[in-house]
Known about the structure:
single chain, alpha/beta, binds iron/sulfur cluster
Amino acid sequence: MEKKDYRPMWKELGLNLEVHDQLLTVLGNAYKxxxxxxxxxxxxxxxxxxxxxxxxxxxxxxxxxxxKKGNKVIGTFCVYVPExxxxxxxxxxxxxxxxxxxGIDEAEKVLPRNTCALIKSxxxxxxxxxxxxxxxxxxxxxxxxCDGKKKAYEILNDYKETYVMEIPQMKTERxxxxxxxxIIQFKEKVEQLTGRKITAENLKEGIKIANxxxxxxxxxxxxxxxxxxxISGLDALLVNQIAFYDDPLRFTKAxxxxxxxxxERVQKGIGVTKNGTPRILxxxxxxxxxxxxxxxxxxxxxxxxVAEESCVGERSTRDLVDEKGKTLDExxxxxxxxxxxxxxxxxxxxxxxxxxxxxLVEDFKVxxxxxxxxxxxxxxxxxxxxxxxxxxxxxxxxxKIETDYGMEDIGQLKTRIEAFLEMVKG
Length: 426
Ligand code: SF4
Ligand code: SF4
């Protein structure tokens, strides 16, 4: 089928068509090499293949359509921004985190070189005119998590108005009070932007949509416990990545359909791995599209990734918002409590995270943990020490990796990962 020409839409959005074409070519080639070369993929992945192929096309067209109906699109960078409030007023929440090197030269004109690649990438996408999602957003929401992000938002604000939520650094009662206040202020901001009131009725619906999406992703996560693995780590990561862009109702249905197929695979003993394939947990910094580097190296080195302890992974889906609340106040409380459970390395102390990694190792019958930090990501690079120590005390093999979005270190990483996998085979 002839692909639709989206160039007029991209032009109207203010994209740099020439560089954007380069991005799509790089993305298309990488997808073909990394994803389409996998064998025995579940049929349900065809939906995800389609969504990724239309990530800058049909999906953006849908966003422009919904905007025409008076609905708003809100771009975010962190799983701390409560999607429920956006969904309550018919808004769409899209992630603006980026995982590609292209555009980084532009970013380095305004940011120090030793900034994490995720920050440089989203800044570069904006400055180089590469991201239709930020162009389509009616509001961009940042947050005070790591220092790199919060200072970068001050610069981003010069190019696109950026509203910043204050995320506490600790988890005391005082921090909860601060965070609840931030949620209420964000609710007012959303109401002002959309001209629509958030009520107990529509918030209940927003909570349900977000929870249903999380439930589908939790179902997928649970299916990854099966031996042999019924889905590759790369495919599961893609699902988690697309969760941040796709229409939530359609996505939830597609993932539940995929899970039905995977359940059948479990029953029939069909898998994507052979007996004895090492089962790896990847833990650490988030992997935004198209950052597939580490799982790709792991899975082309004879192992399978069975879980991601990451915000693009189970950290953003493991907790639901309690649905029992009847009044607006009770629902805001439930949202506050749910988000306070997120164990991002930006918090101190963050003992929950190493403890949770141990639980994952047991639940998913993990043979080894690869701790992944984006280079210059201070929170995860520093916290890697505690994670490593906790795992070593239990005799669980762990490999710490620090890398960026470049491809120059692929050979070196492959050598290190292969040596690690030899060790975990036992
Ligand atoms: S790792 Fe931390 S800063 Fe990044 S998305 Fe997750 S909660 Fe937000
Ligand atoms: S990867 Fe680390 S440094 Fe980069 S934005 Fe996330 S928390 Fe900040």
